Amino acid sequence: MRLVCLVSLLATAAASTIKHAKIRTRAIDDYGNIPTTSDYVPPGGFPDTTWSDPSDWVEIDVTKNSLPVDYDSIDASVAIADILDTVSTSSRRVLVFPAGTYYFNSTLKIRSSDVILRGAGLSKTTFLITANGSANAEIRFDGSWTAEGRPVDGSVSPGATSVNVSDASDIEVGQMVQLYLNAGRQAWGTFIESQLLLVKSVSGNRLTFDFPVDLTYSEKKEPYIRPIDALFNVGGLHIEGVRIERVNEPAAQDVSNVAFRMASNVFDTDNHSINSGRSHADIALVLGMVVERNYAHGFYINKGGYGYGFNVHLSTGVRVTDNKTWDLRHHILLQQGANHNVISYNAIEEPWQSYNDMAFHASYAYFNLIEGNTFYEDCADNSHDNADQGKPFITSLSGHQE
After folding, report:
1. Beta strand spans in 186-315 (E)
2. What's the pLDDT at 13?
């Protein structure tokens, strides 16, 4: 449905002019009752996500550990993986990248918690993704599933903070889990009526969470819980103060400059990302992340999805704030059941070919707060399922919405 702004025209005119004017009227459609606050605000509210610093970090200068600066013959992905495998492995680690350029000729996969990648500043430290297009290289932070899902007893109502499951023997306090409907909606092979939660306590087969459940999970649709081995454990993972640029078009479409998967307590701040494949930052199955003060622009055209800025999907409690993006198809995306995310005070500038730059790209994104952004067009579509439930727009400035 297209929403059209009504402009009130004020003018002075003689009474004789006004009395001869014809006023066109039409029947007003009945759109129902005005929604109440409870229709838009989830039982647990919208989290003001901040990064929780566990402290006690060990700084590691990569140039003193087999990764010299400005050496295009050395693959930074290989060198960083070696550092993480061998240096201060029992500590929380900050990998420090002094000013200069580091060349990524293959994919970097970080599978350890408590890791920060810290540059000298986005105008000083450059991560150059120089891999051939066929390599489809990315900088990735990857957690993993620990086990298959298991049934929840009965239905789960909005506001609930605990559930009983068929077997909780392999679920621990502090672990991240996904609550989803096994017989519910799916898009791209994923369960999209879902929410990520942290386990606060375990008593037998009863799990208590640190945040309320905010959808109805009907017993008829088979609510399930699935545990995740998240890159979490209080330290989180981070990139900050880096210029990231891709120089070759990837062969595959689903290739991002940076990808965060199955992680918690994450931040991505003060970076400058240039020329992505699909996304500049792909954020999937992430619980609690701050994306702040970044620049993102430019992309390689490929089939399917491409030209995305910050793609938030299957994630809960991500705050995207004070970023500047331009020359992309979809600058910020919420899809695949993204929920309880806050998109605030971003400068979303000239889109590529007038695509919707603030996109709720279907697949049941729900309970997301959009506040204080500038952008041209918002679009909530149903190309893969309903776009959302409870999507408030507050003080955002846009050209138009669809």
Report:
1. 186-187, 190-191, 194-203, 206-209, 223-229, 237-240, 243-246, 258-269, 272-276, 279-292, 295-299, 308-313
2. 33
3-state helix, strand, coil in the chain (%, to 5): 10, 40, 50
Type of residue at 123: S
**Pairing outcome for strands 223-229 and 150-151:** antiparallel
Residue 258 phi, psi dihedral angles, 5° rounding: -135, 140
Structure tokens at 292: 């702040």
Q: What are phi and psi of 82, to 5 degrees?
A: -65, -40
Class in CATH terms, 57-143+233-401: mainly beta
Domains in the chain: boundaries: 57-143+233-401, 145-229
User: pTM for the complete prediction?
Assistant: 0.86
What are the structure tokens assigned to 200, written together? 């606060």
What tokens does 194 get?
């879902």
Buried/exposed code over 37-54 (b: 16+ C-beta within 10 A; e: otherwise): eeeeebbbebbebebeee
Q: Is there a contact between 216 and 151 (Cβ–Cβ < 8 Å)?
A: no
φ, ψ of residue 15 in degrees (nearest 5):
-60, -35
Q: What angle do CA 383, 389, 395 make, to 5 degrees?
A: 105
Residue with tokens 């952008």: 375
* Helix/strand/coil for 37: helix
CA distances, 148 to each of 166, 178, 187, 228 (Å): 12, 11, 19, 9
The pLDDT tens digits for 379-390 are 655 555 554 555
Q: What is the Cα–Cα distance from 260 to 33, expressed in whole angstroms?
A: 40
Token duo for residue 188: 């791209």
Between CA 37 and CA 45, with CA 39 as vertex, the angle to 5 degrees is 70
The C-alpha angle with vertex 270 and arms to 264 and 273, in degrees rounded to 5, equals 95
Phi, psi of 274 (to 5 degrees): -125, 130
State pLDDT tens for residues 280-301. 999 999 999 999 999 999 999 7
Confidence band of 186 (pLDDT split at 50, 70, 90): confident
CATH class given for the domain over 145-229: mainly beta
